[in-house]
Amino acid sequence: MRKPPSLSRRLKWRLEYVVYLSVERAVGCLSLPATARLGASLGGLAGRFLTRRRMMVRRNLRIALAGEKALAESDGLTDEVFRRAGANLVASLRTATLDEAGLLRAIKLESPEIFADNLFEGCGVVAMLAHMGNWEALAQMFPRIIPRGVRVGDIYRRLSNPLMDARMQ
Predict the structure, then answer these.
(1) Integer Cα distance of 144 and 142 in angstroms
(2) How far apart are CA 75 and CA 54, in angstroms?
């Protein structure tokens, strides 16, 4: 049997949850473009201070690009990775609070007819989003575009904070 979490751990979870809800509420007052701009700025700033992460991103880009880009261009791409990560993070906080109409305005599906046609013909469909996207918004959108009776599933890793995990689900 598992030992119950300590009081300090439970308090930490509550504090994290309250901070998250506060930030989510504040971001909810902004438009989606404003959240993306704010997130890109914060991500760019984080990229300057998180030197170990920056070195890791730069190394991974060098491996992925296999000498195709000059070092200066690689640095620009490293900056862009941090800006996009920040934009995605803050935008995901905003899309989490959108109603159905707002979500439908925010998400653009490429070739939805191919998706629908294959589902109606009984073919399986695999929809994927790049890791650097707002997958939370896609998970919210799926129940709205999948016909009733079609089995679907999302893959996700449980969060260590049970309050945050329940919010995510």
Answers:
(1) 5
(2) 9
